[in-house]
Design goal:
By secondary structure, the protein is α+β, with helices and mostly antiparallel strands. 31% of the residues lie in helices and 34% in strands. The chain has one domain.
Length: 197
């Protein structure tokens, strides 16, 4: 027969295991989920669907975003993106959105790494205090990254073709490892897909 402290301990242990097992990898879903699982679990407005992706309109970090889920036929859900779905005439607003996304991700994953890449460091003084203009002119790219046991997450802001793109890329760590092992095996050539937004 169990005494009262033993029953309390068992109950706490059971709840802890249940909560540990219920942590999801992206928006309440686990990596490896099927497209059917995602469509059943995602509550945002469906925007578009294709053979290996499904896209929704939602919000993240206080901004409107396009959420895209990517699937591998053998693995299931392997990656996802948030793409800023707002446009501004003031390029500094894109830097604000980048920072808002960074704060939301830091709250979940910790501080992470920060990278600023200049195409030409000699231009840096010309853009002092104007990070949005530097983005718009395509002379700088801002990045932050986080890596957990389950996910690799990359936040990017860059100028391309006169537009500023702010996006977050999530990748399943397990899928990346599975892909790496798969490409090391002899056999037919395996196409690698870039999950760029």
């Amino acid at each position: 027969m169990y005494n009262r402290p033993s029953l309390v301990f068992l109950a706490v242990l059971l709840l802890t295991k249940m909560n540990a097992g219920s942590a999801a990898d992206f928006r309440g879903l686990d990596w490896g989920a099927t497209m059917t699982d995602v469509r059943a679990g995602e509550r945002a407005k469906l925007q578009e669907t294709g053979g290996d992706y499904v896209a929704y309109l939602s919000t993240f970090g206080g901004h409107d975003v396009l959420v895209v889920y990517y699937f591998d036929p053998d693995f299931g859900l392997n990656g996802a993106d948030y793409g800023l779905n707002e446009s501004y005439t003031n390029p500094e607003k894109y830097v604000d959105a980048f920072n808002d996304f960074g704060e939301a991700l830091a709250a979940e994953f910790g501080e992470g790494d920060r990278i600023t890449e200049w195409t030409d460091r000699s231009l840096e003084p010309e853009y002092e205090g104007k990070p949005g203009k530097a983005l718009a002119d395509g002379v700088v790219e801002y990045q932050r990254s986080w890596v957990s046991d389950a996910s690799s997450v990359y936040l990017k802001a860059r100028g391309e073709g006169g537009e500023i793109l702010v996006s977050i890329h999530y990748y399943s760590t397990e899928f990346l490892e599975w892909q790496r092992k798969k490409t090391e095996l002899p056999g037919p050539e395996i196409k690698k897909k870039t999950l760029e937004f």
